[in-house]
Amino acid sequence: MDRPKLSILMVIYLPRRPFVLENTLPTFFGLYPALHRILATERVGVLHAHQAFSTMAHEAVMAARCAGCATVFTDHSLFGFADLGSIALNKAMKHSLADVSAAICVSHTSKENTVLRACLPPSLVSVIPNAVDAALYTPDLGQRQPGRITVVALSRMVYRKGIDLLAGILPRFLARHPKVDFIIGGDGPKLPGLRRAVSEAGLGPRVEFLGHVKPEAVRSVLVRGHLFLNCSLTEAFCMAIVEAAAAGLLVVSTRVGGVPEVLPSDILLLAEPSCDGILEALETALVTLPTIDPWRQHQAVREMYSWRSVTQRTEDVYYRAVQH
Description:
By secondary structure, the protein is an alpha/beta fold. It has 2 domains: 18-129 and 307-323, Glycogen Phosphorylase B (Rossmann fold, 3-Layer(aba) Sandwich); 134-304, Rossmann fold. It is built from 12 helices and 12 strands. The protein has helices spanning 32-41, 55-66, 84-96, 108-118, 163-176, 191-200, 218-222, 239-246, 259-262, 275-288, 294-304, 307-323, and strands at 18-20, 23-24, 46-50, 70-75, 102-105, 125-127, 149-154, 180-185, 207-211, 227-230, 250-254, 268-271. A 6-stranded parallel beta sheet has the order 9-8-7-10-11-12, with helices on both faces. Strands 3-4-5-6 form a 4-stranded parallel beta sheet, sandwiched between helices. A two-stranded antiparallel sheet has the order 1-2. Strand 5, helix 4 (108-118) and strand 6 form a beta-alpha-beta unit. The radius of gyration is 22 Å and the shape is elongated. It starts with 17 loop residues before the first strand and ends with a helix. The mean pLDDT is 90. One of its GO terms (cellular component) is glycosylphosphatidylinositol-N-acetylglucosaminyltransferase (GPI-GnT) complex. InterPro entries: PIGA_GPI_anchor_biosynthesis.
């Protein structure tokens, strides 16, 4: 049977001011009038909400189910079960996703986590990775500094991104390898401490801090590097390592969450989330680096994470949700 034609996807902005980490103040049903009006006026058939800690997403799911719309929820993060914040969030998820039509997670590790936290039937949850437009991250070997090896780290400067580990490995690794430099991009509360660690070790000339890097400038930073380092303590997927691989960099990342699922072993070297583990992986990366073909990596990523494939798989979920 032929599928019905999908309607146009619309984007409507609700004027709500975020109060912390880009999240709006939880109002439980405060957004319901506006959401209900949008659902009715636009004749919405499927509502797709994203992210477990988005208060608007949870309210939208409940409003859509009250309006008789099919609902799809995508979770991008991993959360625990013991700390107070996770317990509260997990309770909210059980309530708002109790009648969701379908769910999407970005990795199998993420699916397992979401199924347990929200008490969802596993059959209701699909695993669909994030997509990347590889054409935006073509390698440019001419940007690399001759005679030097550059390690790039682009991340939000927060605890869960392993910035303390990065501060711990920088002095030791650079002391061993005088021909290695670092480029570090990103902003956040952990940045001053990282800068201080570099300054106290006298590494200022070999570590370039870029601060906040705009999305359109990411490729120009990546192509300057040979290696990409991700020190995260938790990740459901990690788009940064996919973008880096597409730009031709050999990737070193901590073995956490869904990261081992993202890239093959000839592109991604995994490390235990400790200073010694990361240092060992970086040493292996330096030995492996001469065998890396940046353009072969780029083509591999282009085929693995194309928007066409991800869009088709997401569309399949929408049709199943409508039939739910």
